[in-house]
Amino acid sequence: METLKAIFTRRSVRRYRPDPIPDEIMQNLLRAAMSAPSAGNEQAWQFVVVTQRALLDRIPAIHPHAQMLTEAQAALLVCGDLQREEHRGYWVQDCSAATENLLLAAHDQGLGAVWVGVYPREERILPLRELFRLPETVIPFSLVPIGYPTEAAMAEDRFNLERVHFNQW
Ligand SMILES: Cc1cc2nc3c(=O)[nH]c(=O)nc-3n(C[C@H](O)[C@H](O)[C@H](O)COP(=O)(O)O)c2cc1C
């Protein structure tokens, strides 16, 4: 898919068919995530690939806006790795860029996905850290449920010239 077309047509997808996701497609998504820019190329991220039904089904009890996990075939937990951080505080931007790349790659591959926010909410970070046995220095940042969409989502043009300031405010 052409890049701009992918960006303009990506939408959050929260309903999925039960078809499994081939391993090579999951690897493409991870490669896309790791192709993201990061501060000084620090790549302060880690990814947990979640495919076990029992784990996916436990997430809605932890996160109030993650009901779609019960239908998703898989989810990728994007985490910040403080031990890999070279530029203090920038792991958040690294993980944001990786998450957006994941969403665009999923869309390109005919998959549906949605950014489920975790960081900076402590009440989501702590139980997810426990569920996935993350070390103390690894912070769950976002969760991206993935599956083949039940229906095509409508593109939405959000271009708004009122939010654009030329040279000075
Ligand atoms: C930081 C962040 C956190 C989000 N958290 C959730 C969430 O917890 N659950 C959810 O269903 N969608 C979540 N979303 C998706 C937004 O609701 C969605 O991107 C927004 O409504 C725009 O719709 P679109 O993605 O279809 O363009 C989140 C998005 C971002 C960027």
Major beta sheet, specifics?
5 strands, antiparallel
Highest CATH level, the class: Alpha Beta
Beta-strand content: 15-25%
Global geometry: globular
Provide the domain count.
1
What is the H-and-E element order?
HHEHEHEEHE
Description:
With 169 residues, the protein is α+β, with helices and mostly antiparallel strands. It has one domain (3-149): 3-Layer(aba) Sandwich (NADH Oxidase), CATH 3.40.109. It is built from five helices and five strands, in the order ααβαβαββαβ. Strands 1, 2, 3, 4 and 5 form a five-stranded antiparallel beta sheet that branches. The chain is globular, with a radius of gyration of 16 Å. It starts with a helix and ends in a 22-residue tail after the last strand. Bound molecules: flavin mononucleotide.
Question: Any descriptors?
Answer:
binds flavin mononucleotide, 5 helices, alpha+beta, NADH Oxidase, 5 strands
Q: How are the secondary structure elements laid out?
A:
Layout: H1 3-9, H2 23-34, E1 45-50, H3 53-62, E2 74-81, H4 91-108, E3 112-113, E4 116-117, H5 122-131, E5 138-147
Helix pairs in contact: 2-4
Précis, in short:
This protein is an alpha+beta fold and 169 residues long. The protein contains 5 helices and 5 strands, in the order H-H-E-H-E-H-E-E-H-E.
